[in-house]
Amino acid sequence: xxxxxxxxxxxxxxxxxxxxxxxxxxxxxxxxxxxxxxxxxxxxxxxxxxxxxxxxxxxxxxxxxxxxxxxxxxxxxxxxxxxxxxxxxxxxxxxxxxxxxxxxxxxxxxxxxxxxxxxxxxxxxxxxxxxxxxxxxxxxxxxxxxxxxxxxxxxxxxxxxxxxxxxxxxxxxxxxxxxxxxxxxxxxxxxxxxxxxxxxxxxxxxxxxxxxxxxxxxxxxxxxxxxxxxxxxxxxxxxxxxxxxxxxxxxxxxxxxxxxxxxxxxxxxxxxxxxxxxxxxxxxxxxxxxxxxx
Length: 294
Prior knowledge:
Blueprint: H1 2-22, H2 41-51, H3 61-97, H4 111-131, H5 133-140, H6 147-151, E1 155-160, E2 163-168, E3 184-187, E4 189-193, E5 198-204, E6 209-213, E7 218-222, E8 228-232, E9 238-244, E10 256-262, H7 264-278, H8 287-293
Parallel strand pairs: 1-5, 4-10
Antiparallel strand pairs: 1-2, 2-3, 5-8, 6-7, 6-9, 9-10
């Protein structure tokens, strides 16, 4: 019976390691969100699935640095997990193989071991804290944002139950903190140019939400009463998931939007059409209808 419990406690961590090893296979895909392969997110998933190869690389330069930090921590945790369970298995089998007639050994512990298992984890945590400071500063400290993005924010994103309200500056103008008469508005669709860093102002109109672009590894809480700048860069054109990652009420599931990354000329064209539609007076043709007729 002793050996049964030894194998029982060895089996589960072994199973956990095996599951982790198969998690990235094309059959399971329990990993990072895959990058889009086309202009439509559903089409992208079908294209990638047909190829049998999933691209888990972040779709932004900063996202790739965040992934590197994740992999570093995962490597450290994996090594510690395996080492601890090997030691646990050794102790269990060694104890199970000893005779019950032997004399028990009592000890008050080892000061040397206690010092080691205190200093080593503290050193690892300190290393991780220092190693990630550069990435954290790039992501969170506005003075470290790219100048191009900081000087010309592309939109204001306001979260509210249960949608994302997007405010763009009028074509030829710069976005201001406070709404301006010529600003353009839409819902649940954020257009940004590819290949360059962009910044948005993030607000919440009611409760706390979370601005989440999983393929770009961007996540920032939207806090009522605060205007929070967020920057990112989409490296290739396509549609990306744009979600709320904070349970914000009964309609939380409705807050699924689209981030559309496209060439800057396409973004300018979209804004011109949006302006025509917003200025539609009920007599002339809206831009959407005119585009279809052409």
